[in-house]
Design brief:
With 169 residues, the chain is of the alpha+beta class. It has 5 helices and 5 strands. The protein has helices at 31-38, 95-102, 112-125, 131-138, 149-167, and strands at residues 10-16, 19-25, 57-60, 63-66, 79-81. Strands 2-1-5-3-4 form a 5-stranded mixed sheet, sandwiched between helices. It holds the Pfam family Fer2_2. Keywords: 2Fe-2S, Iron, Iron-sulfur, Metal-binding, Oxidoreductase.
Amino acid sequence: MSNPLPSGSRPITLCVNGQNLTAHAEPRVNLADFLRHDLGLTGTHVGCEHGVCGACTVQIDGHSARSCLMLAVQAQGKHIRTIEGLANEQGCWHPIQEAFRELHALQCGFCTPGILMSVVELLENHSDPSPELIRDVLSGHLCRCTGYQNIVRAVQKAAAAMRASHAHE
């Protein structure tokens, strides 16, 4: 005998990090908790649970969004990209991940996945973002450990690496 679905659970079909899947979610469960607890994608962190800190940022249909402010059932048919989806198919890190490591742009790391998901969108839309534009994107993220300067440098380094990579293609 199979276990019955929880009362009120709804099936949702979505694409997470390139994988199409169908799962069940309670209507009141937010996307951050669904990703972490139901799908095991614990790289998406939950901080303030009010959309202020940015720790839960993921990409939804190519745009960064606070997953604590969206219900899992609202993700029906959406393409979700989490920090686990940044590395390529061969497991090589995204240039922004490499730059963060090389330039020590993180300390405790709690805010880092959300920051990375926002700056990846920036890098995908701006090949050479100014420090001011980078800081504007970072203004939606709270980091208590760094002074953000190494984060800005890491974004600039990743942008340069991505430009060089595209020039060689």
